[in-house]
Write a structure and sequence with these properties.
The complex is a heterodimer of chains A (346) and B (548). With 346 residues, chain A is mainly alpha-helical. Chain A contains 17 helices and 2 strands. Chain A has a two-stranded antiparallel sheet with strand order 1-2. Chain B is mostly helical. Helices cover 69% and strands 0% of the residues of chain B. Among the domains of chain B are: 119 residues, no CATH class; 204 residues, no CATH class. Chain B has 29 helices and no strands. Classes of the chains: A mainly alpha (346), B mainly alpha (548). Chain A: InterPro entries: FANCF, FANCF_C_sf. Chain A: It comes from Xenopus tropicalis. Chain A: This is FA complementation group F.
Chain lengths: 346, 548
């Protein structure tokens, strides 16, 4: 048995390398028999997945092995795509898609693959279930339409929710066996690679939907996300500017640390505001006009009783720091308090 | 060979493809959906022609072919439809040269390659900026589309099921929902889509008008009837309640299937009725009455076709079984299903004859006849048509009347004969029924003395039948004769050899054969009830049926 396991792991290493190579320029030297063997190994590892995915012991062994193989490869390949145990289930599809998207693929191999795929609906055994992927893609092109589905609220936007799901699985898998700082390094590395503002929307979804709260002993992914957001001032400012104030309020009521940092952000914006010649408050940061700024406070007041009293106390303290004027047009905090009172009937 | 692509077709489809470029317009989207089956057929024809030609010959003979295929590849509705997409892929492959010689062929090859990659690969942006970030996460994203599809569908369902009075922000408008229903048409059979189809069918907004597109409703109904999709009972019911044409189609489809199988086994037909889900839907009185109306028209238009009458009888039987089993939900009163009929008559007919001793059966039949005859004897009354149609649903009692006539010395033979005469010949005024009755009485009286003889020879019966036929030749009366003769033979089981011979004589016309086979089949079905001791009779009937 140990011998067999050893062979299996060695084969797995080779196959992961083949999958990686299928995305590289090296495919230009491949011939059809290479590709055919690639698909055969794909079939084999799909069977491995189906045989072992319920066997915890073997599954763990394979997952651990894959993890270290992935780390090794990612160290020397740019934009490396991690392969997990679950991915083995789709190994042929991954292989096929990598090849089809590879510009270096030779004409012969391209035609070979297309010939195989062409027969996918005719009842013959096809080389992989690309048909299913194509159907799903086609369905998405039809169903993702209208503003109602591409909602501004990331929690209701299926694209953001799906990316959040995938990011979470990927990170959980990668940091599982790492300790402290290493975990954060991986999270920070991956997050910095995702374009803005997508990364903020994804994080908002993950932070709001995570079940783990502050009190848990173990360092959760949410903590690592928060650390990444809060450690870097410009990231946090961007996050607060790009994410809807209702979501920020909900995050504040869920995480104490967010509530404090969010208030700091608002104070900073408030302090930067000045009256223009028309008597209106304008920010040097033009992205946040007075009305939007006021909305942040309104939303804080409407989210929970605790947040409401804390926000009100904070605004009163700021107002008194500023000279405790009751007349509008002198201190931003007096004006915000007056505006907020109009709406929430303090 | 080259002539196989209708050139006109090519021009027609090219014009269509150009019009369809405006897929943002709902009517244009709907037009694509309407044309998908024809387009698929056309592309298959194109493929059959192209596969025998070199790519350059193909382009030379059909210059617009590249433009057409290219445009179709860009159309979400065309590409969304699996069969059409596959036909498209096949056609594109034919335009690829395996040994490109000229620059044109090289360019064509790379053009085809791009289109095929566009169709095969799922990495392309779906059109949202968020999708670009997925590639930066650093993991394989082969299951991205399946996850995204699931979440997109969940998101639509959430919006469709938002309560009426909820926050109006992001609330779906009727137009949005119609657009969504049209977009579902090309992908109806995708298993992931089922929960969304159900949510759409169950959606009831505040709009007085139907928000779902009629083509969508039609195609969903078709897919259900062809068993291409399996939806929840509540969704199917909702479809039939909101779209009358679908319900009508479902009933006609059931008829067609029952008639097409030409089964001699009513059990098999019963199974088909059960699977159609119409019986479940008919538990709603409004649906039952629509189905019943279709039945009535079918019977009238087919001049009382025996097969259709049997379908009605079977359907009622299965319907009542379910109705009586239903203790959990609120049950509608029977009056709601048969609003035009006398309530006590309905109650009497609904009683199941299984296991009742002959004398109880007879008494029960007499009470039925007492209620039925005054209405039936009113000349040209609407009532008589309704009551006759009601009797059709419960034809078991008519068979029992015939059975009792042939098995017992009944003093009420006249009543029983009247019931049979009314069943077979209710149409023309009372007089006609009376004539049928008189004729059948004569047959009955001639058969009666034969019952006590140890054996009867087929030729004697044949002579008897021929003589009676000569005196009364109304087709309805003839039907009644056949019923009486067959029951006469069946319920004297020692004569089954005679029965075989006689039936062979009697069923020389196709119509007669159909009728006799139906009588035999329903006798097997009626008597094959667990716990009933009639195995010998059933074996005989099976044997007789087998000869057809």
């Amino acid at each position: 048995m140990p011998g067999k396991m050893h062979t299996l792991l060695e084969n797995l290493d080779r196959y992961i390398e083949v999958l990686t190579l299928s995305q590289s320029v090296h495919v230009k030297d491949w011939d059809i028999s290479c590709v055919r063997r690639g698909f055969e190994w794909g079939t084999y590892f799909q069977q491995v997945y189906h045989r072992f995915h319920t066997n915890e012991c073997l599954r763990n062994a394979l997952e651990d092995h894959l993890r270290s193989k992935n780390e090794t490869l990612s160290a020397c390949i740019k934009n490396y795509q991690y392969i997990t145990f679950n991915d083995l289930r789709y190994s042929k599809e991954i292989f096929c898609m990598s090849l089809l998207q590879n510009k270096a693929l030779s004409k012969d191999i391209f035609q070979y693959i297309v010939r195989q795929l062409k027969n996918l609906s005719s009842g013959e055994i096809s080389i992989c279930s690309m048909s299913n992927i194509m159907c799903q893609k086609a369905a998405l092109q039809l169903l993702l339409f209208s503003s109602s589905i591409a909602s501004k609220n990331p929690l209701e936007n299926p694209c953001v929710v799906t990316q959040a799901e995938i990011l979470k699985n990927h990170l959980e898998n990668r940091i599982r066996l790492l300790k402290g700082d290493h975990q954060f390094a991986v999270v920070a590395d991956v997050l910095s690679g995702i374009p803005q503002p997508s990364v903020y929307k994804i994080l908002a979804v993950l932070l709001l939907s995570s079940e783990t709260c502050d009190s848990q002993g173990q360092v959760s992914l949410s903590h690592l996300f928060l650390k990444w957001l809060l450690e870097n001032d410009s990231a946090w400012t961007d996050f607060c500017s790009k994410i809807n104030c209702h979501l920020l309020s909900r995050l504040s009521s869920k995480y104490v640390i967010v509530s404090k940092a969010y208030m700091d952000f608002l104070i900073k914006v408030g302090e930067s505001m000045e009256l223009d010649v028309h008597g209106k408050w304008v920010s040097s940061n033009a992205e946040l006009p007075f009305n939007t700024f006021r909305n942040h406070f309104e939303s804080l007041m409407n989210t929970s009783e605790d947040l409401r009293s804390a926000t009100e106390a904070k605004l009163k303290a700021l107002k008194s720091q500023d000279g405790d004027y009751d007349l509008p047009g002198i201190s931003i905090w007096t004006d915000i308090l007056l505006e907020v009172k109009k709406i929430v009937h303090l | 060979m080259a002539q196989a692509i209708p050139v006109l077709g090519l021009e027609f489809w090219l014009k269509k493809a150009q019009e369809w470029d405006q897929t943002v317009i709902l009517e244009s989207q709907k037009d694509v959906c309407l044309h998908l089956p024809k387009l698929q057929e056309f592309l298959q024809q194109v493929y059959e022609t192209l596969k025998h030609m070199s790519p350059s010959a193909a382009v030379e003979q059909f210059p617009p072919i590249g433009q057409l295929l290219g445009r179709l590849c860009e159309n979400k509705f065309v590409v969304g439809h699996e069969e059409t997409r596959n036909a498209l892929i096949h056609c594109l492959c034919c335009l690829q040269s395996s040994e490109p010689k000229s620059a044109v062929e090289l360019a064509a090859n790379s053009w085809v390659k791009n289109l095929l990659c566009h169709l095969f690969c799922s990495s392309e942006a779906i059109g949202h900026e968020e999708n670009q970030s997925i590639n930066k996460i650093g993991c394989t994203t082969v299951d991205y589309h399946s996850k995204l599809l699931k979440n997109t569908i969940t998101s639509w369902i959430k919006q469709l099921t938002k309560p009426e009075n909820s926050n109006s922000e992001n609330k779906l408008s009727g137009d949005n929902i119609r657009a969504l229903s049209i977009r579902c048409i090309p992908i109806l059979t995708l298993p992931d889509l089922i929960p969304l189809l159900e949510a759409l069918l169950l959606y009831h907004g505040s709009e007085p008008k139907e928000v779902l597109d009629d083509e969508f409703l039609d195609r969903v109904n078709d897919a259900i009837l062809r068993k291409k999709i399996l939806l929840s009972e509540s969704a199917v019911l909702s479809l039939w309640l909101r779209h009358l044409q679908s319900l009508e189609k479902a009933v006609l489809d059931l008829f067609q299937r029952l008639i097409a199988i030409q089964s001699k086994s009513l059990k098999e037909m019963e199974q088909i009725i059960n699977d159609s889900f119409l019986v479940q839907a008919a538990q709603y009185p409004s649906i039952f009455r629509i189905i019943d109306n279709i039945f009535r028209n079918a019977i009238l238009e087919s001049d009382g076709n025996i097969k259709i009458i049997t379908v009605v009888r079977l359907f009622t039987h299965v319907f009542l079984q379910l109705y009586q089993k239903n203790n959990t939900q609120v049950r509608f009163p029977l009056k709601a299903y048969f609003p035009h009929s006398n309530r006590s008559l309905v109650m009497a007919l609904i009683r199941r004859p299984v296991g009742l001793p002959p004398d109880v059966c007879l008494a029960h039949l007499q009470s039925i006849i007492r209620m039925l005859s005054p209405v039936a004897k009113e000349t040209r009354s609407r009532g008589s048509v309704f009551e006759w149609f009601l009797l059709i649903h419960f034809g078991d009692w008519v068979d029992i009347a015939a059975e009792l006539l042939m098995t017992s010395e009944s003093e009420s033979a006249d009543d029983l004969l009247w019931l049979l005469a009314f069943y077979y010949n209710p149409w023309n005024e009372n007089e006609e029924t009376n004539r049928t009755m008189a004729a059948s009485r004569s047959v009955y009286e001639r058969l009666l003395p034969l019952r006590s003889s140890a054996s009867v020879c087929a030729s004697k019966l044949q002579t008897l039948l021929e003589e009676e036929k000569r005196s009364a030749c109304h087709p309805c009366t003839l039907q009644l004769y056949r019923h009486l003769f067959i029951f006469f033979l069946l319920f004297s089981p020692d004569w089954h050899v005679t029965a075989k011979e006689f039936i062979a004589h009697m069923t020389q016309t196709q119509e007669a054969a159909r009728e006799v086979s139906d009588i035999l089949a329903r006798t097997v079905w009626r008597l094959s009830i667990p716990g009933m001791k009639t195995p010998k009779l059933i074996t005989i009937v099976h044997e007789l049926l087998h000869d057809f």
